[in-house]
Specification:
heterodimer, A: 221 residues, alpha/beta, Rossmann fold, 2 domains, six-stranded mixed β-sheet, three-stranded antiparallel β-sheet, 9 strands, 33% helix, globular, B: 229 residues, mainly alpha, 82% helix
């Protein structure tokens, strides 16, 4: 279960989210879109538990959260393998090679993360987020530094998490990359000014997702 | 409990690796301690003090330099956590603030203790004072004080980690709070230098233990709040 109830979050005088309510069902892949400053990243941090709301509440029953953002949450001076071993061991995972291979990182496993390109760092960050079988996966702009191959690897890893969780894992993905992520989404939510502007609803058809995204594109043209 | 301790051990290994590769804390500690000790030693040598006087001032110099070098060297202790947002990654993975605090405390205590031993050697050399027969007692006192310093500074370094003024803030906030520890360390070292027994009714070891308990409990409970904020 994952639900944001009347959530408000402000940073100084800027209100990022205003009495926002959203619920997410098991197995759902929600594509969260909106202009810069619409409140996407704040909502993702609240859903993952990294931030606490000023008012309202986030109800979550998830045991393992996989979170990816441009911050990566990695140690630059540790190698790729050492990073994944550390975060894997915390989750009780020993076999790291499987996850290194999944994101095509075996060749760079012994190199420090800080010496890698942005795209490779992003793949390490995704591998860290999707270690094991998280039941909630929150991805903030996962494809922004990825090439075509990196995106395919991401989609493959997402598929593996869905399979392992028997289609129970919830995915919430914020992205401007509508072209590459619409295909895997089962719902589209548009945020504007910290509020839900459009929502295709749970288990929406491809057509209704396209309609929501088309309206979003129109407004932002 | 075993799994809990296992995660602490994992984090300790991570801290050691990061410190070994960056050598930020150890290098700063060694540089600050050596610089201060050499300056003090040179001042004492030029004053041409006799042996009994040097013996009397040894504890004071040792503890002033230990406190100053330790509190001014922890400025970059959490820098690598901040660069990659490692704290948040660990919290997301289910690691608790208490586990992070204990792992950092252990590594910082070891670094401070190494600094104390370095200073013992430097002052023994510069003041021409033989400490070989008192080394064990002095090291025990230094170890106790190192844990107190590390307990407080692990927490304060996390609180001040995002401040641009942390280089100034950390010594200003921590030194008054560490004053009882400074007094205890100095008094206990004086007793050792004079050849007296520590357990002879003196309150200093008890005060040191109380300070340890207070800062440890505060750190365990507040570290996660400091990291999240």
């Amino acid at each position: 279960m994952l639900e944001a109830r009347n959530v408000t979050k402000a940073f100084g005088s800027f209100t990022a989210l205003r009495r926002l309510s959203l619920s997410f069902s098991p197995g759902e892949v929600t594509l969260l879109v909106g202009a810069n400053g619409a409140g996407k990243s704040t909502l993702l941090k609240l859903l993952s538990g990294l931030l606490r709301p000023d008012s309202g509440e986030v109800v979550s029953s998830h045991k393992q959260v996989g979170f990816f953002s441009h911050h990566l949450f990695l140690y630059g001076r540790l190698s790729v393998r050492e990073n994944l071993e550390l975060f894997g061991a915390v989750r009780g995972i020993r076999d790291i090679d499987k996850y290194l291979g999944e994101m095509d990182l075996l060749d760079v496993a012994s190199r420090p993360v800080s010496e890698l390109s942005k795209g490779t760092q992003a793949r390490v960050g995704i591998a860290r987020a999707l270690l094991g079988s998280p039941d909630l996966v929150v991805l903030d702009e996962p494809t922004s530094n990825l090439d075509e191959r990196g995106t395919l690897l991401l989609l493959g890893a997402m598929k593996r998490v869905r399979r392992v969780s028997q289609d129970r894992a919830i995915f919430v993905v914020a992205s401007h990359d509508l072209h590459r992520l619409t295909g895997v989404s089962s719902r589209a939510v548009v945020l504007s000014g910290g509020e839900v502007a459009l929502d295709s609803g749970n288990g929406a058809s491809a057509e209704s997702i396209d309609t929501v995204l088309a309206r979003y594109r129109e407004v932002n043209r | 409990m075993r799994r809990w301790a296992g995660i602490v051990w994992l984090l300790v290994r991570k801290e050691i690796r990061l410190e070994w590769r960056s050598r930020e804390l150890l290098t700063l500690l060694a540089c600050n301690a050596t610089l201060l000790a050499v300056l003090v030693g040179a001042g004492v040598s030029s004053a041409v003090l006799d042996a009994p006087t040097r013996e009397k001032i040894f504890p004071m110099f040792l503890w002033v330099v230990f406190m100053l070098s330790s509190t001014t060297s922890v400025v970059r202790f959490n820098e690598q956590e901040l660069e990659g947002r490692g704290f948040e990654g660990l919290l997301l993975g289910g690691v608790t603030g208490a586990q992070m605090f204990i792992s950092k405390l252990l590594v910082m205590s070891a670094c401070f203790f190494a600094n104390f031993l370095l200073l013992l050697g430097l002052f023994a050399l510069s003041l021409d004072y033989d400490i070989s027969d008192k080394l064990r007692s002095l090291a025990t006192t230094g170890l106790g004080a190192s844990v107190v310093l590390a307990s407080l500074l692990t927490l304060l370094a996390a609180v001040a980690s995002t401040s641009k003024l942390k280089g100034v803030l950390l010594p200003i906030i921590s030194l008054p709070l560490l004053f009882p520890t400074f007094l205890c360390g100095m008094e206990m070292t004086t007793e050792i230098v004079l050849g007296n027994e520590l357990a002879g009714g003196a309150p200093w070891p008890v005060i040191l233990l109380c300070a340890q308990a207070v800062y440890f409990v505060a750190g365990i409970n507040l570290f996660e709040v400091a990291v999240r904020e």
